[in-house]
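Marked as duplicate of an earlier ticket. Keeping the data here for the record.
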Amino acid sequence: MSEDAAVRLAILEDDTLQSETLADWLRHAGHDVHAFSQSRDFIRVAGRESFDLCLIDWVLPEMSGTEVLHWLREDRANDTPVIFITARDAEEDIVTALGAGADDYLIKPLRRFELLSRIDAVMRRARPQASDNVIDVPPFSFDVQSKRATIDGEPVELTDKEFDLAAFLFKNLGRLLSRGHMLEAVWGRNPNLATRTVDTHISRVRSKLGLRPENGFRLTPTYNYGYRLEQIDAEDVAAD
């Protein structure tokens, strides 16, 4: 799997052996994995970090998977794709999980390649642009392979990290991203880097690309969390 296709995954599974097996499969496939055995630990981290996809066990010691999912969807208004993993295979259970907001459902015992295929399918539906080699959000275009950025066809000089950060923001247009998520996506897991690195590069990307409301884009910070890049109507902004 290419680095560009890597997914930042959260696993909530109280069975240690099951969790370690899943994490090993996913890391071997090139994904970034954050594993949790307790609902409260997942909620604490998910309240300040963003993920591309969550794998959630149905039966958990503190809160059920459906309760955790309700917290994500209702309390946090978080639309991160969720795949339920459980031994419950009755039709009414599947209907309940999907009705609660799950994007897919896998029955234990899990099979490695089926899991990876389901994750790919869910991500294609949730973030279709994320798999493109060229990201086009007029007037911007980003060629991921050549790391070439243009505005209305004119090249923009970006460093490699600035390009990677800009491309990541545009892949996730409209989505609130945590600083930790951006650090992992652009710099990898490097404990020697402070989150201030993200803020510095965000400032440079905003300036070089002209990401301002009058140009139809808003790149806004969320206190103690991260950033969201939104496309807005520049005419409405001017009218205000």
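See parent ticket for discussion. The mean pLDDT is 89.
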